[in-house]
Write a structure and sequence with these properties.
The complex is a heterodimer of chains A (331) and B (335). Chain A has 331 residues and is an alpha/beta fold. Chain A has a single domain (12-312), classed as Rossmann fold. Chain A is 41% helix and 11% strand. Chain A is built from ten helices and eight strands. Chain A has helices at residues 12-37, 52-61, 75-81, 85-92, 126-139, 158-169, 217-232, 261-269, 272-282, 288-310, and strands at 67-71, 116-120, 146-151, 174-180, 183-184, 187-188, 209-213, 238-243. In chain A, the strands form two sheets. In chain A, strands 2-1-3-4-8-7 form a six-stranded parallel beta sheet, with helices on both faces. A two-stranded antiparallel ribbon of chain A has the order 5-6. Helices cover 37% and strands 21% of the residues of chain B. Chain B starts with 5 loop residues before the first strand and ends in a 5-residue tail after the last helix. Classes of the chains: A alpha/beta (331), B alpha/beta (335). At the A-B interface, strand 2, helix 5 and helix 6 of A face helix 3, helix 4 and helix 5 of B.
Chain lengths: 331, 335
């Protein structure tokens, strides 16, 4: 077994690492929503609260040089791939400290230094880009793999089907990760497709497709590890469907009138973050005191990052002309 | 072969030469698109022989999936590859435009310069062949409207070689628009493999003093024919080939029209809201009060391009419609 082959059974260390990612993503989401709601700062935000277990799976299964493409609902994924909180929050709040100096915004955070290559604001559009990243890995004779994260709605786009077909045809080192949170923007997923499981769509491209409990990080990790191993070994792409739930609607401020209240309450009652902490304590992986320490440390890291971000200036107006072209001066 | 020598060839051969030399010079260069590899060698033969020479890993045949072609090119470019995706016929670019407009054009800016996307999207206008409205359009104005893209339309074999070489190695995303009707046009091309032309420099294809025809692509050939006809009438026409629409060489436009005081803008794109509108506005802003006649525009009619020969010919510009426009700038004038 080479250094890069993953054991699909998460080790105690990996389980603790995954809990830390989930706790941090939850703390960051909560602090952001609090800040927007109280008028402390302004931003636009598409919350991923409830979907943290999937990002934990990325953290435990992807190497630092592996690539990830995510979407506007990507806070948890960014944290899972190792983008710093200052870069994330700085970008969301439009500060110079942001990953892209405030020019990308919440939807478009990139940090290639940790392999976070693109966050796209266009549903489905990340998949063909992931195909190209994987093609480059092969062309450059690297064994890095590429994961693309997208929602259930993305699997109804032509981009998904074109990209999946091409990845399978070229047998590229790609892992397609669908975060099925039950809603495509404001329409229930079940009203938008005629397949029972999104993973069934993989059959159309003769690639493996699996459906896992996207609220269980151990199960997510197992599926991702298997897919990453396959991709790295030259076995081609996999579609992993992670069934999860979105606690706060499509965007911050969404009144969620289209969601049955009892459905939402049941999902929140089964919140994957505290549930996983409890499980690790019950399984003896960590002590209760350690779980509380992880939670407190997560909150503190978010506060520390926010202090740095709020002290960072807004981007200067000369940023308007920079980076439009390589020459910076536009035309 | 001395690098000062030149060889006569067609536009098609010049494009093939640029691709061949770029692939030989730099193994980051990848081609991808429909039917590119041998034996097809491209629907118009531009890529013939390249997959045999450089391998199927560098000349990638794709499914008919324009969004995936553009997206995959972008992904590979983010990793430092120099990718030349082909959208076979420009009308098909609608399928790929999301990737080009929302990713390729914007990733440098949106990432604060941390990611770049040096792709060269080759595509071809098939107008003039009777293929009808979905296989004939010149859609360059769509891309001129998007900050972050460069838009290139070569005319002669020399320009085709020099501009395609420049585009492939340019750090920004380029939309490189070829014209099938001019693939057979012949001209001299420098043998020096490193020959390239700067993007953003217009070229005077024929000097003249009475009026300037500002044009590009196929329009250059029509304008030169029109200029020959008008020379017989004692009218001395300057033909300015823009070569790149973005960056637009406004200095050369103003210099030329500032001299002739009369301008015609001609292109195969729809006249209404076409590239010529931007050129006409540029001329008006810089030379208001100096012009001896209103700027005339010649382009495609505001109608889907029809298939029947007579109808299509009446829709698209020609040497005679350009000549007529030049005459209009001289009516009742003795400037």
């Amino acid at each position: 077994m080479s250094m890069s082959t993953l054991d699909p059974k998460a080790s105690p260390d990996q389980q603790q690492q995954m809990l830390e990612v989930m706790v941090l993503a939850k703390a960051c989401d909560e602090r952001l929503r609090k800040g927007i709601a109280t008028g402390e700062f302004l931003t636009v935000y598409w919350p991923s609260r409830g979907q943290e277990a999937i990002a934990a799976g990325f953290a435990a299964s992807l190497r630092s040089d592996d690539r990830l493409v995510t979407t506007y609902r990507g806070l948890h994924d960014l944290i899972g791939k190792g983008v710093s909180l200052v870069e994330i929050l700085g970008e969301m709040l439009g500060r110079q400290a942001g990953a892209c100096r405030g020019k990308g915004g919440t939807m478009h955070i990139a940090d290639p230094s940790v392999g976070l290559m693109v966050s796209t604001g266009i549903v489905g559009a990340g998949i063909p880009v992931g195909v190209g990243l994987a093609l480059a890995a092969r062309a450059q004779k690297s064994d890095r793999v590429v994961a693309v994260s997208f929602g259930d709605g993305a699997t109804n786009t032509g981009s998904f089907h074109e990209g999946a077909n091409l990845a399978a045809t070229w047998q590229l080192p790609l892992v397609l990760v669908c975060q099925n949170n039950g809603y495509a923007e404001m329409t229930p997923t079940v009203d938008t497709m005629h397949v029972e499981h999104i993973a069934d769509r993989a059959a159309g491209y003769n690639m493996p497709g699996v459906t896992v409990d996207g609220n269980d990080p151990v199960e997510v990790y197992g599926a991702l590890a298997t897919a990453v191993n396959r991709a790295r070994a030259g076995g081609g792409p996999t579609l992993v469907e992670c069934v999860t739930y979105r606690f706060f609607g499509h965007f911050f401020g969404d009144q969620m009138t289209y969601i049955p209240p009892e459905e939402l309450e049941a999902a929140k009652a089964a919140d994957p973050v505290p549930r996983f902490a409890d499980r690790l304590v019950e399984d003896g992986v960590i002590t209760r005191a350690r779980a509380e320490e992880i939670e407190e440390r997560g909150r503190q890291r978010v506060e520390d990052a926010l202090v740095e971000v709020l002290a960072s200036p807004a981007p200067a107006l000369d940023e308007l002309d920079r980076d439009v072209y390589a020459t910076s001066e536009g035309h | 072969m001395s690098i000062d020598t030149e060889t006569e060839m067609t536009v098609r051969d010049a494009l093939a030469l640029a691709l061949d030399q770029a692939m030989a010079a730099d193994d980051r260069v990848l081609l991808m698109g429909e039917d590119l590899a041998d034996q097809a060698g491209g629907v118009s033969g531009v890529t013939a022989g390249l997959s045999t020479k450089y391998g199927a890993d560098r000349v990638l045949d794709t499914p008919i999936s324009e969004a995936a072609i553009a997206g995959a090119a972008i992904g590979a470019a983010l990793e430092g590859m120099l990718v030349v995706p082909e959208i076979m016929i420009m009308d098909f670019i609608g399928i790929a435009i999301d990737q080009i407009v929302n990713h390729a054009a914007k990733l440098r800016f949106m990432s604060g310069g941390r990611t770049t996307c040096p792709i060269t999207v080759r595509t071809a206008v098939f107008g003039g062949l009777g293929s009808g409205a979905t296989h004939s359009q010149s859609l360059e104005a769509w891309f001129m409207h998007i900050p972050g893209l460069k838009v290139i339309v070569p005319s002669t074999p020399r320009d085709a070689k020099g501009l395609l070489t420049a585009a492939i190695f340019d750090p920004d995303p380029c939309v490189f628009i070829e014209t099938v009707l001019t693939y057979g046009a012949r001209g001299l091309v420098p043998d020096d493999p490193s020959f390239s032309l700067p993007l953003g420099e217009a070229d005077v294809k024929r000097p003249g003093k009475d009026a300037t025809v500002v044009t590009y692509g196929r329009g250059v050939f029509d304008a030169l024919t029109a200029a020959d006809q008008l020379a017989g009438e004692g009218i001395d026409v300057e033909v300015l080939d823009l070569r790149t629409l973005v960056p637009l060489d406004t200095d050369k436009i103003i210099e030329s029209v500032g001299k002739t005081k009369r301008a015609v803008v001609a292109h195969s794109a729809t006249t209404f809201a076409g590239p010529g509108a931007e050129v006409a506005a540029t001329i008006a802003e810089a030379l208001f009060g100096e012009l001896l006649a209103p700027v005339q525009r010649v382009g495609a009619a505001f109608t889907p391009i029809p298939s029947a020969q007579g109808l299509e010919a009446a829709t698209l510009p020609s040497a005679s419609s350009i000549a007529d426009a030049v005459r209009r700038t001289l009516e009742g004038s003795h400037g």
